[in-house]
């Protein structure tokens, strides 16, 4: 088999993978729904039974977001070693792996073999921006990347030779399961707040040192479009859930209006 024919077959597999159904975490129940935890289409979870009559998640009929977790640690893996000491150094810290979401059709793996193998598409000689023929669904205009305001480009984050990996300042590969190690290169202040629990989200056991699930950067933020959303943060604002039902015997919540224009003076 010639090299071109081999590449052509793999490219065909890329197309086939793109049209196959997405893989999910665990087996879905017949009535199982798919909802998202934080970012639509990039933090999907399939509803399934973890115990008789108990689902792993409850999905909002309004927004499609997860409202409740039956098991906050379902489908998680250890966070792994982190370069800076924080709470995760003294507790059982787990994360939901990002690779199954990013590569859910094995498209990234197959196309890395078919295209970015150093031969069919040679490894780039530098990191200078250039127009892209592919990936327009992810980055519509590679010359106007919506991240870094012109200071960075694709290969500042993606490994040039190992396309299933990200890259650090020293050229070492970073797993897609650990995007915080990449994002912390530039976003130091936010990274510190994330380590301290001020930024981001954790669920699990409240006790200090107990097991917790941490949300990582790309579960909430779109790294390819940080101008998304009203706050220009790569975070798409979610539609709020309907207001809760009033307690029995209460006809309205007009008493809440007394606090609408109250401002804290700091005293």
Task: Describe this protein's structure.
- With 267 residues, the chain is of the alpha+beta class.
- Helix 1 runs antiparallel to helix 3.
- The longest helix is centred in the first third of the chain and has 17 residues, at 3-19.
- The chain contains six helices and twelve strands.
- Among the domains are: 31-71, no CATH class; 75-219, no CATH class.
- The chain has a four-stranded mixed sheet with strand order 7-8-12-11, with no helix packed on it. The chain has a two-stranded antiparallel sheet with strand order 1-2. A two-stranded antiparallel ribbon has the order 3-4.
- The model is unreliable at 1-11, 15-30 and 263-267 (pLDDT under 50).
**SSE sequence, one letter per element:** HEEEEEEEEHHEEHHEEH
Helix content: 10-25%
Number of strands: 12
Q: Helix segment count?
A: 6
Strand residue content: 5-15%
Structural class by SSE content: alpha+beta
């Amino acid at each position: 088999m010639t090299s071109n024919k081999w590449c052509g077959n793999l490219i065909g597999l890329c197309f086939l993978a793109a049209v196959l159904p997405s893989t999910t975490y665990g087996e879905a129940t017949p009535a199982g729904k798919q909802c998202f935890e934080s970012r639509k289409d990039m933090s999907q979870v399939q509803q399934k039974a973890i115990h008789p009559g108990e689902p792993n998640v409850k999905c909002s009929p309004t927004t499609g977001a997860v409202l409740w977790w039956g098991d906050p640690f379902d489908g998680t893996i250890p966070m792994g070693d982190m370069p800076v000491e924080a709470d995760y150094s003294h507790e059982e810290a787990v994360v939901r792996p990002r690779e199954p979401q990013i590569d859910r059709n094995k498209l990234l793996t197959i196309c890395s073999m078919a295209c970015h193998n150093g031969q069919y598409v040679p490894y780039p000689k530098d990191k200078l921006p250039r127009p892209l023929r592919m990936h327009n669904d992810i980055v519509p205009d590679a010359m106007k990347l919506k991240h870094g305001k012109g200071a960075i480009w694709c290969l500042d984050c993606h490994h040039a030779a190992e396309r299933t990996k990200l890259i650090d300042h020293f050229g070492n590969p970073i797993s897609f399961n650990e995007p915080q190690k990449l994002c912390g290169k530039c976003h130091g202040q936010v990274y510190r707040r994330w380590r301290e629990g001020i930024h981001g989200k954790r669920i699990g056991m409240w006790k200090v040192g107990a097991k917790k699930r941490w949300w990582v950067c790309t579960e909430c933020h779109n790294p390819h479009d940080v101008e998304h959303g009203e706050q220009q943060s790569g975070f798409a604002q979610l539609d709020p859930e309907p207001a809760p039902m009033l307690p029995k015997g209460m006809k309205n919540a007009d008493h809440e209006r007394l606090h609408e224009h109250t401002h804290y003076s700091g005293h």
